[in-house]
Amino acid sequence: MLTSEALNQYLQEQQADYALIRQDAPILSAQDAAPYYDVRYAAPTLVVQTDRGLMSLIYSAQRGRLDLDSIRTAAGLEKLKLADRKKVEKQTGYTVGSIPLVGLELPCIFDDRLLAFSYVYGGCGDPLTTLKISPKDVKRLNSVVFTLTD
Hints:
Blueprint: H1 4-13, E1 18-22, H2 30-33, E2 45-50, E3 53-58, H3 68-74, E4 80-82, H4 85-92, E5 107-111, E6 120-123, E7 129-133, H5 135-140, E8 143-148
Parallel strand pairs: 3-5, 5-8
Antiparallel strand pairs: 1-7, 2-3, 2-4, 6-7
């Protein structure tokens, strides 16, 4: 688990195009995010349980509701569902709602729709900080094993 300082150092070392945005309260909804960034560019990170173990799923909020069955089939997985909160926290050190866009040591399912944007916004492990980052860097800095395409 990376602290905010360690994440900042890691992103600098990786020459990522990013910024950390502090907020007064955790972002739990699109309404909470609106004062800080355009929610059309949100890139939530979910942790999913698969037949291959835990994976991160980074997707474009513009997709709306995710169809996990379609993703499971397309990725060639036998099982894909949201992971249990306690298991996520135990294995990653992060609480659900604060899962970072980068820095997780999990295989990743990445949504290529995000590449249409200059920047995306998501978690960084600190509930009072949002990561603004180039989606190309998000893809580059994760262990992508499957890409969502339209």
